[in-house]
Amino acid sequence: EAGVVQSPRYKIIEKKQPVAFWCNPISGHNTLYWYRQNLGQGPELLIRYENEEAVDDSQLPKDRFSAERLKGVDSTLKIQPAELGDSAVYLCASRRGGGQGRMNTEAFFGQGTRLTVV
Amino acid sequence: DAKTTQPPSMDCAEGRAANLPCNHSTISGNEYVYWYRQIHSQGPQYIIHGLKNNETNEMASLIITEDRKSSTLILPHATLRDTAVYYCIVRVASGGYQKVTFGTGTKLQVIP
Predict the structure, then answer these.
(1) Under an 8 A CB cutoff, do B102 and A48 touch?
(2) Are A7 and A114 in contact (CB under 8 A)?
(3) Which band of pLDDT confidence, cut at 50, 70 and 90, is reported for residue B91?
(4) E strand or H helix at B12, and its extent?
């Protein structure tokens, strides 16, 4: 079974430019998360989807960040315009959901996209 | 979600048991204890989780105190590949909407 796939793996852009990250979750996983991880810190949740609905986006800087999950499968996270402080690793994770066992509650993470804004 | 406290770093000799502590004194009755680890340049990886009973799987053992205010992750025979940042998280696991909130974790260095 393929894991969570993210692309690109690395991205370097100039400030004020737009950037987009793509995530393909594990097939059948209803819950999808986007996290941001700054150097030396743990991941911080940006947004959580249950199927195609964004149910927790309280940490998403809505003035410049946007996300979508069309048809409840793939998701994209966009930043426009990017700022120097947006340099971080952006992680996508997915979870099956629907119960308490490990199969339902374990979240699987992708390798992340490392963004450098110069 | 309840807050957790972990030591920032630990060393462990290769082949010895690594015992990683976590305090979660404000844990609620319906919150589980989860452990993830993150090897350099990779995404976090699930290790184990439990509610109140001790748990064991192929990767590790989880010991939860009777009052559930703290827990210990045990890697029985640490290898160099276990060098990583280990995150202890508490959250509701059953139904509803939930999120995983990470702290800064414990950086485990396995020494040859």
Answers:
(1) no
(2) no
(3) confident
(4) strand B9-13
